[in-house]
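[step 3/7] fold_predict: job queued, chain A
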Amino acid sequence: MTSFTVSQIAEALGADLFGDGSVRIERAAEPADAGEADLALAMDPKYADGLAQGQARAAMLWRGADWQALGLKAAIVVPRPRYAMSGLTQMLDPGPGIAPGIHASCVIDPTALIGAGAAIGPFVAIGPKVRIGRNARIASHVSIAEGTRIGDDALIHSGARIGRAVQIGARFIAQPGAVIGADGFSFVTPEKSRAEVARETMGDAGDTQAQSWTRIHSLGSVVLGDDIEVGSNACIDAGTIRPTRIGDGTKIDNQVHVAHNCEVGRDCLFAGQVGIAGSVKIGDNVILGGQVGVVDNISLGDGVVAGGGTVILSNVPAGRVLLGYPAVKMETHVETYKAIRRLPRLAQQVADLQKAVSKPGQSD
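[step 4/7] structure written:
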């Protein structure tokens, strides 16, 4: 097991070190569960009692903590604890156990090119004319279809599916079961469908006849930038003619769906179960909380933030913070919610007033 000294960890994190920097660390742990080889994560005073319950010799502490009074031999103090967690977990994460080289059970087309330093696990299928960059780590049962290109330092976990002609940048991470480049959900009827008529008339489908659906095939594939992460069972659909595009640094959580023809900017963050319909244009640094829904053919400006469960039905200007269904400014939603909670009391007051008016001259 790989271990680090407290001094090495502090230097890597740019943190302040106190005490014995030679103490060796193998894991991170919550204070009450920490053993002698663990770095206890007690970055708030409320975790101080946990340190007394555990056996940690070293801890990451809040600024101003008296590490000696807490019974520690060494301490690390960081200015922004959660950001420090990113560096610490990167140091301590061994990653998936994929043996170097290409497993004998893989099926790799002779025209595919695999970069130097690859580690490819069992039962991986790689199609014709695929190009995979250097130092790729590909776990078992991954499939990569024909014509796809993936940049250097990719990490693709078990069971991920990457469709044909997908273009992916460097340092890509796909969690188990992610699907990139499946066909978009595009179907059409010979005449206007009931859905089209209802949308045009805002609810009146008239006497539109029932029709069968005909597929519109997806020819546009997917283009992903650098440093993109895609969560477990997330799906990014191929475009119809032009590709679905996602910008550098965007992070996509589990069970997120990005539909065909979407254009997503840089450094966006989509939490679990976000659903984005087709042909949506999303700016840079947009954050969508869990279960946010976005209807098709609208745009979200740079820096938009939508809280969990928000349903976005129209264009959103840059910088807007949203909440609710339908989405409104967060402060408007909060005031509306407060008003809804007051409705039973207001209804009772109105009933009392009606009673008083209907019986003049009487009092309770």
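[step 5/7] annotate
The mean pLDDT is 94.
The chain is about 15% helix and 25% strand.
exit 0
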